[in-house]
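User: Sequence for WD repeat-containing protein 43 below. Tokens please.
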Amino acid sequence: MSLGKKHVLGFSPNGGQLFASVDEQGVLRIWNTETNTLYQEFTPNLQLSGSCTALTWVSVAGSRPKKSRKSLQAQDAGDQLHIALGTYKGSVVIYSLAEGKISRTLSGDSHDGPVTSITYDNDGHLYTVGADCRVVVWSLTDERSIAEWQVGPEKPQNIVYLQKSGTLAIGSRQLKVYDIKTKELVETFTGHSGEVNTISSVSSTDGTEFVLTTAKMERVICFWKIDKKGKNKASACTLLMEDLAYCLTSEVRDDGQLRVASVTRNGIIHIYLLNVNSLSAEKFVKPKVSLQIVSDGAETVEPLLAVAAHFVTDSNRSHEILFGYGSRQQLQFERITPNYGEKLNVIVRADPKKRYAKKKGKEQPGYQAATKVQKPIVNQKNVEYNNALPISQKKVQNEVPMEARLEHLKIQETKLSGGKLLTQSKTQLLMQALHSKDQAMIQAVLSTQDPETIQLTLDRLPLDYVNPLINEISILLQGKHASVRSALRWLHALTSTHTSVLLSEDKEALREKMAVCLGVAEQRMHCLSEALQITGRVNLIINQMKRNAVNHLNDNNALILDEDPDEPQSEAEENWSDLEEDQPDSPKSTLEDELMADDDLATDDGNADADTDSDVSED
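Assistant: Structure tokens for WD repeat-containing protein 43:
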């Protein structure tokens, strides 16, 4: 069975009696699928080994403590099972079901990064691939690594062992097949546009081996026929799904029928029935039947997400399929025979959360006595409803009506010195906006310009909201100038405040998370030199225009000089005045004198004519 990237899980090889899964906190839980009980729960030491990134079931013959004959007879074959765990620090540890702890840690040359996938060959050897693009072979007998080789340059995501051909199929963006003895690449397949996230293998009755893979952001299952020759080969068959696959399992029955089951992201199980000898690459195959689990709520019908599926290998129940549904902390398992006459089988079941809560309540002492309550028979007309709170006997005079209270009800803003709002409200508002994905609220918070408010808001922001905030900042960086300025302020404060959180992640994961921010920065840096040249030339033109506008010329382009009346005249100006006084009369002054004399003569003639007229009138 394949282990998804986000779903580290697997059924035990003894008919799926046990199911192991690791949640996001690194807690290993083992369930008994027969009794639907939590068999064991183990929290590893993250400082020593790191969180679990991959797991597989193995059978290890180890030393056992001395026990009584009765206890030895009571032990079943499940005590021989162990779980091999690949860790974030690149090592491999063995978890013992009998002891309930890590029984041994394999030594030798381990991976330089996290273990991405692990597989077992049922012959005492483990094969792991990691982020360092290497395959490491581990011996359970020697408890150490015995061989390794490079499989890069693409980062391997999944690995599966093919027993009949003695090869390893490694999935990254391509599917590569390596010979274990020679450590050489013997076959490659291409067809996925993204990285492989689930992988499984199956062998037909005639010995032909097939590898089944699914990839990120793809809703298909590809079949690859292994014959140890050729490069860039296409898939032999393609199956269609409604959503991305998180879990993949397959088996070939004795009659040659191939059964494939996939659990998708939306919690639906797709089952395919194929004939191995008649696979065609030209036609896409749709699921024969789909299983959907829903809750039996009285008001609304809510879907229950399926987590994993496994085909039952018991001959008496060969037509059944085992699946688990619920959450990682509360799982419920069931075996069912699908109705292949219908495309969709809706399975109505109780929600595991409600079932566990009810079961936990019944186990408490006195639960039956507390829940056995008799209902009294009372007369509805004589019922008096009392308040549980104590009521004062004093009557309040002039009680204010409710309408007046509502009118005077106001929300008082808590302010700091300087008139700034309390930053805790910004933090809570940012958390609510990121949780509800309200773009208007997010824009209102991220438009804050005050550096102190931004810093205090990020100081109080929980670590779970760092990744959603980076996504929103990346969206703002692709907007206009005002949005980019606000986004840069928040990004600068975020990287300086939560540096340890960002550096604790994987290099590839951090690069993928900050891809948009880095891309925008690099794009703007490419245009920086041209933008600076344009800015410099525009500034030169503006400054020249300002200097031309500020001058001492009037409208007639005449130079204006402002003289201070209190300023004493210089000696040169006094000499110039003396020269003007000593200079003889100019022709202009002589002309003016002659004009004055003519005016006087004309005046005298006018007076004489006036006297003559007066004498004649008297006569």
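Residues 587-618 form the longest helix (32 residues).
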